[in-house]
Structure prediction request, 111 residues.
Amino acid sequence: EANDLMKVRACLSADPLVATTPFWDHSVEPSLCAAVRLRCDTSILKALLDSDVDPEAVDSHGHTPLMIAALLCSEIPEPDLLSLPFSDFPQLPAATEDRLRTARAAAGVLM
Prediction:
């Protein structure tokens, strides 16, 4: 199942190098970049960071995990929207609200 912290921890326990090994099937993507792109739970991001993954690793597009978190909200026109409470924007679609929550959470872990 996706977003399974127990499976991530099991993989890291079985082979600590798995956190630093890029995903060859996905354009040699670093694990932390993939976790952010796939909108994994912050507990998974923390587990990867605790496993000596490079927080500044770049994907094949030159994006760091923090840049990817920022790009998750790139379709939203106002950059200040990231710092305002959701209640100020009742017209936001639920998917956009979820994307903002995920991006905020990922950025908080990565900073």
